[in-house]
Amino acid sequence: xxxxxxxVYLIFCVLFSSCITNKDLVYLQEKEGLTAEDLGLIEQPKPxxxxxxxxxxxxxxxxxxxxxxxxxxxxxxxSGSQAGGLYFNGFTVDMHGxxxxxxxxxxxxxxxxxxxIKEKVETELLKQYFKETAEIFVTVKLAGLKYTxxxxxxxxxxxLLQDRVNVIEALANAGxxxxxxxxxxxxxxxxxxxxxxIHHIDLTDIKAMQSPYYYIQPNDIILxxxxxxxxxxxxxxxxxxxxxxxxxxxxIVSTYFLTRNL
Length: 262
Hints:
Elements: H1 2-17, H2 22-25, H3 36-39, E1 55-61, H4 83-89, E2 91-92, E3 98-101, E4 105-108, H5 114-128, E5 137-142, E6 145-151, E7 156-160, H6 167-173, E8 186-192, E9 195-201, E10 220-224, H7 228-232, H8 238-260
Parallel strand pairs: 6-10
Antiparallel strand pairs: 1-2, 1-5, 3-4, 6-7, 8-9, 8-10
Helix pairs in contact: 1-8
């Protein structure tokens, strides 16, 4: 009978060690003696540089709005910031890094910041079409920050009408990571001019706020893997594991007595 109890004991230890603890669930924990005060002021990310497939909202204003009507979508009254409207009226960066702008034609914006694109469009308008006396004013914005979430999180494509979003905000907008999701190794698949790269970030560690991948960029893919505990089929809590162990113990004991009486 001793061998059966040893077997039960081993199962008991394995299942209880598979519980999902607070260390697996809590974001931005102070680890290795590092505190929030030790981190100091977290610097804002550098200005984003436009990539292929980004969508831009560009609007031209002047004292006489009739002069700039051809550069702006017909009937627009501020609603153009909505993602759906900008799909038809915005400017998508093509595979060569260009946008097609009325009158001016192709303008290369690949690798430029929003401020640099604004200056570039204003310069070209004054050079090719307007005089200084027109007092034109150009606004350039990203048409929302689009990103994708997949895995142990609300799966889908999301658009936030913000210029700057960190990964925790992005995950919260997607419904947050499931209890069985691995917060210690979240994958950020990021687009670069030469292709895509995969980056890793541990969201349970407060040092994640210093990571260059803490703030997401347009077209990022956030992939959350499942914990090994889930893959093994273990319970998420001690009570769930206890129920599993109880069932196993009951089965083993019943089997033992049945075989003993044969």
